[in-house]
Design a protein that fits this description.
β10, α8 and β11 form a beta-alpha-beta unit. The strands form 2 sheets. This protein has a 6-stranded mixed beta sheet, with helices on both faces. The protein has a 6-stranded parallel beta sheet with strand order 9-8-7-10-11-12, sandwiched between helices. The protein has 2 domains: 128 residues, Rossmann fold; 138 residues, NAD(P)-binding Rossmann-like Domain (Rossmann fold). The model has no long low-confidence stretch (mean pLDDT 96). By secondary structure, the chain is an alpha/beta fold.
Length: 278
């Protein structure tokens, strides 16, 4: 590719499965922008050096995925509010003076997908969040900001769920429960932000938490969302009220793209193209 093309990358471990290069290439073609976007597989012990080398060699921006989102925040010299309060970053930008700015686009991507694309008004609903990792932190803040009535967070390691609730600091609206302590409760929205779909395991949750109008949303997509989808449908979620995270992936990528290039792409055609395959 021409030397005039700006360089971008996504860092993760593993990373070969990433759709980010395809998504950013589609955005760039749409807006007539020349760029080079590659994947970088960096093991945890190599991540810091790999990112610094990428930017030192002329890289302009990087997306960050598992397992590096917390480490990405630590190497930044400038941190956005969204990254600061979630404690993780998925977007890095080279600063004019040579430093690195960290941002998190997960929260905005989630809200736009579920509210604008899927028409789910989050205001006034009772939501259950499964998981307490980096993406879960972003979604927890997004749900609170969007006006859910209550947010219940559960995680296999309950202390991590408590940390999120404590950081939010609204005990009347945001609280935690034990994974096996949900009997007798029910929710309008159930969001899976665990890694069970990737690492394996069962969603051994009481099916009574689902109501006849409940929506289920998995931050994963494709095969990784199959386990949670199977549980949700068996529990009574209507097939057309189950959503996976493909739209969130596209929307959060658009946020990063706009941050880097100053133009926001149209996400719908990119989403439709990917939806035919996943």
């Amino acid at each position: 590719m021409s030397a005039e093309a700006q360089r971008f990358a996504v860092f993760g471990h593993p990373i070969a499965h990433s759709l980010s290069p395809e998504i950013h290439a589609a955005f760039a073609k749409q807006l007539g922008i020349r760029l080079e976007y590659t994947t970088v597989d960096a093991a945890p012990g190599e991540f810091d050096a790999a990112v610094r080398r990428f930017f030192a060699d002329g890289g302009m921006g990087a997306n960050i995925t598992l397992p590096h989102k917390q480490a990405a925040l630590a190497l930044a010299s400038e941190v956005s509010e969204a990254a600061q309060r979630t404690g993780v970053a998925n977007t890095l930008t080279r600063l004019p003076g040579g430093g690195i700015a960290a941002h998190n686009t997960d929260a905005g991507g989630f809200v736009r997908d579920i509210t604008e694309r899927h028409g789910f008004d989050l205001r006034g609903h009772d939501a259950l969040l499964l998981g307490a990792g980096g993406a879960a932190k972003a979604v927890a803040w997004a749900l609170m900001d969007a006006g859910v009535q209550t947010l219940t967070i559960i995680n296999r390691t309950p202390e991590r769920a408590d940390e999120i609730a404590d950081a939010i600091g609204e005990p009347a609206r945001c609280h935690t429960r034990y994974w096996d302590g949900l009997d007798g409760e029910c929710f309008d929205l159930i969001v899976n932000a665990t890694s069970i779909g990737v690492t394996g395991g069962d969603f051994d949750l009481p099916m009574s938490i689902v109501q006849d109008h409940s929506t289920a949303y998995d931050l994963c997509y494709g095969a990784a969302a199959a386990g949670f989808k199977g549980w949700a449908l068996a529990a009574g979620v209507r097939p057309d009220w189950f959503r996976d995270g493909l739209g969130m992936l596209v929307e959060q990528a658009a946020d990063a793209f706009e941050r880097w290039h100053g133009q926001r792409p149209d996400t719908d055609p990119v989403y439709r193209e990917l939806r035919q395959r996943y």
